[in-house]
Amino acid sequence: MNTVVVGLQWGDEGKGKIIDYLCKDKDVIVRFQGGNNAGHTVVVNGKKFVFHLIPSGILHSGKICVIGKGVVIDPQILIEEIEYLKKEGVTVTPDNLRLSPYSHVIMPYHRVMDACREKQRIQKIGTTKRGIGPCYVDRVARCGIRMGDLINENRFSLKLKDNLKEKNPLFENVYGTKGFNYEEILNQYQEFAKILAPYVCDLVDIYYKEKDKRFLFEGAQGTFLDIDFGTYPFVTSSSTISSGATLGSGLSFVGVDEVLGISKAYTTRVGEGPFPTELNDDTGKYFQNKGNEFGATTGRPRRCGWLDLVLLRRAKILNNVKKIILTKLDILDELEGIKVCVDYKIDGKSIEQFPYDLTGVQPVYEVFAGWKENIANIRDYKQLPSAAKRYIEKIEDYLECEVAYVSVGQMRDAIIDKRK
After folding, report:
1. Does the active-site annotation cover 104?
2. CA-CA distance, 378 to 385, in Å (whole number)?
3. What count of other Cβ atoms lies within 10 Å of the Cβ of residue 215?
4. Which domains does the chain have, with CATH numbers?
5. Any catalytic annotation for residue 212?
6. CA separation (Å) from 166 to 138, 184, 188, 262?
7. Which candidate in 20, 40, 110, 138 is catalytic?
């Protein structure tokens, strides 16, 4: 069984913990897109691990973790992550972590360009300024530097010179900042190359021979940050939906058996852009504080709002989701009443089609009674309060899709397998 796990909202749905939970039954865990703008958090025996590039499956022995070609890699961040895990007693070697030579490399000029572009925009996007977007731009413009180039000294040198020849005048004459020194970048990245070279290998041939293994594809961000189907331009720079899994990994020959979609029991998003169910009141602050809604990568506070079933239905269709994983249900424990968006209106009129632009959309709510009970220690679905089960059943009925798992806390085992 090969499984794709995707976020159904604007990211931060709790994918890291779910990947960690699911990968015990998998052999190979593949990250297929995004960069170190992602942050996946897993709590094991009270200790929190935050991942930015490496799949959280690395915490399990006997698994192979892959950073696929759809991911853009900041080598310094990756090396820091490897060293951090090793200090925590986690085994990270070329045997259990492998990098695609086709993955593009984030360079220092990408990070500066990211910040310069955001500063000059009239309409701010809310970029993390990690250089993700400019790196993807260079990939499409065919001037990018890939991991296979980085570990080849002559090829890297030539490509770096070529890029600085174009980009330094741009920084100096357009953005009004100084350019980059070729020797400094060359020396720094050659050191990175020495460390990362053993991890780089051609994944296609290796995994074609092992195509009968069980694969788990891990997405970053969420459906509505997808470069095409998200709330453009307030999106990320890669395809976050399930169809990007095989393209971003190069493993189309293994096939996908199921797509699991992850949604919080409420909604959050980071950065700019429309958000129909956003709450700018005490309830929104409650979600933010109770749910610890601050970015694992940037520390930025997340905007919070009620669960949006119209949004989830769209995400379910886009990703061909067969089962839902509902996270952070425990955050609703203290609420008297819980609202769920079941329809959209524009100018006071219900709309039949999902809107091209969510700006100005008015949510229509259905109200549910809260359960006012701590559910963090429950592991059997039957033991959930009846009000909590009604909430879950509403989600299933509206989406015409089973909620297979329910997460009720940060801890690794705080998951209810609803099918048991």
Report:
1. no
2. 10
3. 26
4. 3-98+200-259 (3.40.440.10), 104-196 (1.10.300.10), 263-417 (3.90.170.10)
5. no
6. 12, 17, 20, 42
7. 40
Per-residue pLDDT of the chain (420 residues; tens, 9 = 90+): 899 999 999 999 988 888 888 988 999 999 999 999 777 777 777 788 888 999 988 999 999 999 999 999 999 999 999 999 999 999 999 999 999 999 999 999 999 998 888 888 888 887 888 999 999 999 999 999 999 999 999 999 999 999 999 999 999 999 889 999 999 999 999 999 999 999 999 989 888 988 999 999 998 899 999 999 999 999 999 999 999 999 999 988 998 999 999 999 999 999 899 999 999 999 999 999 999 998 766 678 999 999 999 999 999 999 999 999 999 999 999 999 999 999 999 999 999 899 999 999 999 999 999 999 999 999 999 999 999 999 999 999 999 999 999 999 988 889 999 877
List the structure tokens of 228: 């095409």
Residue 326 dihedral angles phi and psi, to the nearest 5°: -100, 125
Helices (H) and strands (E) in the chain, counts: 12, 19
Q: What is the pTM of this model?
A: 0.93
Q: What angle do CA 97, 250, 227 make, to 5 degrees?
A: 100
Sign of the CA dihedral with 352 first, then 353, 356, and 357 last: positive
C-alpha 9/C-alpha 224 separation (Å) is 6
Q: Residue 192: in which H helix or E strand, if any?
A: helix 182-196
| 153 token code pair | 């000294």
Catalytic residue (one of 12, 138, 149, 308): 12
Run of H or E residues at 113: helix 108-120
Q: Can you tell me which residue has the tokens 């460390």? A: 195
